[in-house]
Amino acid sequence: MLQIPRDILDSIIAHAKADHPDEACGIVAGPAGSGRAERYIPMINAARSPTWYEFDSGDLLKLYREFDDRDEEPVVIYHSHTETEAYPSRTDIAYASEPEAHYVLIGTVEHGNDPGPVVVRSFRILEGVVTEEEVEVI
User: Fold this and answer.
1) What is the C-alpha separation between 59 and 25, in angstroms, rounded?
2) Cβ of 103: how many Cβ atoms within 10 Å?
3) Domain span at residue 129?
4) CA 3/CA 85 separation, integer angstroms
């Protein structure tokens, strides 16, 4: 189960709506080994695409060095789906490289960046196997 603070989830949703129709992406870090989602880190979708996201490699390298310095790890890796269901695509599954991370998808298909609800789903992806999990907002 993913436990995520309300303010962080609200920030993720706001980012997804703001970047629509392109996919938004980012990470939520926490202390290494804790599983606690504590630090929201919005990223820029270097692909600038409505059907694909890509972290800028330089930004990602810098971020992982920061994780080492702060003894953190990615707890949540998120992105939005702007044209399809909030479920990991084959590409999402192939690129899922953090076995302990929660992969959160925000569906903005119905309302885009207009007022209205989004779909929030979380998954674990391990060796190509996708398992949906409950999201508890704390």
Assistant:
1) 13
2) 22
3) 2-137
4) 22
Residue 64 Cα to chain centre, angstroms: 16
Within 10 angstroms of residue 10's Cβ, the number of other Cβ atoms is: 12
Return the structure tokens found at 133: 């999990």
| Structural domain count, the chain | 1
Q: Are 27 and 4 in contact (CB under 8 A)?
A: no
CB 84, CB 46: distance < 8 Å: no
- The whole-number mean pLDDT for each consecutive block of 10 residues of the chain, a chain of 138 residues, reads 98 97 98 97 96 94 97 98 96 94 96 92 97 97
Burial classification of residue 7, based on how many CB atoms lie within 10 Å of its CB (0-12 exposed, 13-18 middle, 19 or more buried): exposed
Specify the CATH number for the domain of residue 130.
Answer: 3.40.140.10
Element at 63 (helix H, strand E): helix 57-70
pTM tops 0.90: yes
